[in-house]
Amino acid sequence: MRELNALVLENVRIAENIYSLTFATEEPVPVRCGQFAMLGVNGFPLRRPIAICKAEGNRVTVCYQIKGAGTRTLAETYKPREHISVLLPLGNGFEVGAGQKRVAVVGGGVGIFPLVSVIRAYCAEKEIYAYMGFRSRAAVCMEYELRRGKSLVISTDDGSLGRRGTSVQAFMDEIDKIAPDVVLSCGPVPMLRALKSALSGRGIPAYASLEERMGCGIGACLVCVCDKNDGTHARVCKDGPVFDLSKIVL
Ligand SMILES: Cc1cc2nc3c(=O)[nH]c(=O)nc-3n(C[C@H](O)[C@H](O)[C@H](O)COP(=O)(O)OP(=O)(O)OC[C@H]3O[C@@H](n4cnc5c(N)ncnc54)[C@H](O)[C@@H]3O)c2cc1C
Ligand code: FES
């Protein structure tokens, strides 16, 4: 992990309330899919954790939704040629085993962003079946990236694009047809809970990236601790953010 003073190349709106920020680091940073960055935002003592969507050479792209004051400041004040302080790469990331050929990725809301990096990393060697859920048509973004796999099913809560309903429902309707060897997911807790319960008893390995509130992002403050089924705890920033879905309490 390194602290870098990166140069903003682009920071543009790509959907309702959602921005794509690309910055350049002085040297290339090796990043695994599902890892994240802590972005320093001027005026805010705590950095903001954001998944890395793309890392090509020394260019890194993250996508973020304006949620509160920090992400609003990020969208409104970081223009090309300005500098941004970033800590990266952080967390464990997703890994697909050599014998796991058919990979289902199930995302919802801002949870689609770490899965973009999974699709990019594995689309050439695996069969990727993507199920992505958005609030409405206005929130749909990164479609080109999400289509790199074998198939993509988009769902929206209001039915304004694709299927009406959640990505978990869309996935479960096709699970027997696609017979995934592994399921990778990210999204809000109710979505992950629904996925965990739908997969229970099927014996398919499933992993989820958690979006817990964070303080330091490097394992020191314990703000991000989550509970595991065996009664132990884990730091989402350092031990995760990716966990075996069957082993975490949601
Ligand atoms: C590993 C990880 C990856 C993430 N990836 C993305 C992404 O790719 N795109 C995206 O839009 N969002 C992502 N998030 C959520 C994002 O970090 C929050 O939306 C953001 O920190 C909100 O900051 P704010 O100042 O706008 O909101 P505020 O609510 O004002 O934030 C107040 C404080 O709470 C923290 N906080 C609030 N909500 C969250 C949250 N859901 N997760 C973690 N910390 C939070 C903030 O970092 C800040 O310290 C990710 C979170 C985690 C943990
Ligand atoms: S955010 Fe500080 S320990 Fe995880």
Secondary structure elements and their pairing?
Elements: E1 2-15, E2 18-24, E3 36-39, E4 48-51, E5 54-56, E6 59-65, H1 69-77, E7 83-90, E8 102-108, H2 112-122, E9 127-134, H3 143-146, E10 151-156, E11 163-164, H4 167-178, E12 182-186, H5 189-199, E13 206-209, E14 225-227, E15 233-235, E16 242-244
Parallel strand pairs: 8-9, 8-12, 9-10, 10-11, 12-13
Antiparallel strand pairs: 1-2, 1-7, 2-6, 3-4, 3-7, 5-6, 13-16, 14-15
The structure holds flavin-adenine dinucleotide and FE2/S2 (inorganic) cluster.
Residues 36, 46, 48-51, 62-65, 67-71, 110, 113, 211-214, 241 line the site of flavin-adenine dinucleotide.
Overview of the molecule:
With 250 residues, this protein is an alpha/beta fold. The chain folds into 2 domains: 2-90, Translation factors (Elongation Factor Tu (Ef-tu), domain 3), CATH 2.40.30; 102-209, Nucleotide-binding domain of ferredoxin-NADP reductase (FNR) module (Rossmann fold). The two termini are 28 Å apart. Helix content is 19%, strand content 35%. A hairpin with an 8-residue loop joins strand 3 and strand 4 (48-51). The chain is built from 5 helices and 16 strands. A 7-stranded antiparallel sheet has the order 4-3-7-1-2-6-5. Flavin-adenine dinucleotide (FAD) binds at residues 36, 46, 48-51, 62-65, 67-71, 110, 113, 211-214, 241. Residues 214-217, 219-224, 235, 237 line the site of FE2/S2 (inorganic) cluster.
